[in-house]
Amino acid sequence: MFTTLPDLALRTLGGSVVAASDESFAEKESLIRPGRPGFRPETFGNKGQVYDGWETRRRRSPGHDWALVRLGMPGVIRGVVIDTAWFKGNYPPYASVEAIALEGHPSAAEALAGTWTEIVPRSPLKGDAEQHFEVADDHRYTHVRLTIHPDGGVARLRVHGEVRPDLTLYDGLGLDLAALANGGLVTACSDEFYSAPNNVIAPGLARHQAEGWETARRRGPGNDWLVIRLAGRGVVRLAEIDTTNLLFNAPGAVSLTGLDGDREIPLLPRTPLQPDTPHRFRLDGLEPVTHVRVDIHPDGGLARVRLHGHLT
User: Fold this and answer.
1) Distance of CA 125 to the CA centre of its chain
2) Which family does it belong to (predicted)?
3) Residue 259: exposed, middle, or buried by beta-carbon count in 10 A (0-12, 13-18, 19+)?
4) Where does residue 218 rank: exposed (0-12), middle (13-18), buried (19+ CB within 10 A)?
5) Cβ contacts of residue 143 below 8 Å, gap of 6+?
């Protein structure tokens, strides 16, 4: 299911709602907030019932409303979720989504003037429901435009896909080969009982325990692990293993193994970890790898994993 892929539009991953045709009742920025939409009945402000979403006025003329979103991470869009949670008598009956790829840092006016591609055709919506739309398009996009027909409220817009950054910016420079923003992705994981493994390669610092990756308590032999597909084949020289916020559930130790085809290349032997601590380890390996397996012993959680190096 495409929802296991990162939400390219999420505010905490750098997304922004840069313009909207109207936001009379509820602000456009709510569209890309993390988490489920909230609601408190009979909570009225100066503009009416307060909604955790985007809501436009009742349209009395022909046309439709729209919101323009700059993706926090450009990429290939595999699916869109339009969530009308709590909008029951004021949701739009139809919606469509378009996308565009723009270089540099265009203004909203420049983006709107570009040539857009429809990725979700005009489709019927239900109120107070998540609507999933798969996208069959392999092009890279930087912006999306949600159009509602004719007006109403949408709680959240999720744009799931595969990150495709412009790595030419790093020519001759080092970078975090594991970073989600650079095209890294967790492709396998032993356990994700408490939180999603892709959290460990998200931008910024984890603000609390749930913003990292945490496994269930292991009662049998073995250990938990995840595999990170790097932004590209490269040499990893510095590993950052961060257990911040994991006070009583940090792993006892960590080890790192590089993968390149059928080869396994030791990068970091089993090394003790401290709770609630950012750790940094210089690595001696000079062989390029495409993936790195992070083994935690025996279980627990990590806030972030950074793997700095150079693309080959």
Assistant:
1) 24
2) Belongs to the allantoicase family.
3) middle
4) middle
5) 68, 69, 70, 71, 99, 100, 101, 102, 111
Token pair for 106: 């265009």
Q: What's the topology of domain 168-311?
A: Jelly Rolls (2.60.120)
Tens digits of residue pLDDT in 106-121:
999 999 999 999 999 9
Three-state DSSP at 181 gives helix
Q: Rounded to whole angstroms, how far apart are CA atoms 254 and 246? A: 14
Six-digit token string for 269: 């032997």
Would you state the structure tokens that stand for residue 148, as one six-digit string?
Answer: 């509602």
* pLDDT of amino acid 52: 86
* H or E element at residue 110: helix 108-112
- Show Cβ contacts of residue 46 under 8 Å, excluding neighbours closer than 6 positions: none
How far apart, in Å, are the Cα atoms of 63 and each of 58, 66, 148, 151? 11, 10, 10, 9
Write the single-letter amino acid at 205. Answer: L
Joined tokens for residue 11: 């505010």
Name the fold adopted by 2-163: Jelly Rolls (2.60.120)
Measured CA to CA in angstroms, residue 229 lies from 121, 126, 164, 182 at distances of 33, 37, 13, 11
Q: Where along the chain do the CATH 2.60.120.260 domains lie?
A: 2-163, 168-311
- The token pair that represents 183 in the structure block: 């095209």
Closest C-alpha to 303, from 158, 225, 195, 190: 195
User: For residue range 249-306, what is the model confidence (pLDDT) as tens digits?
Assistant: 999 999 999 999 999 999 999 999 999 999 999 998 789 999 999 999 999 999 999 9
* Four-point Cα dihedral 130, 142, 163, 232, nearest 10: 170
Q: What pairs with residue 239 in β-bridges?
A: 281, 307
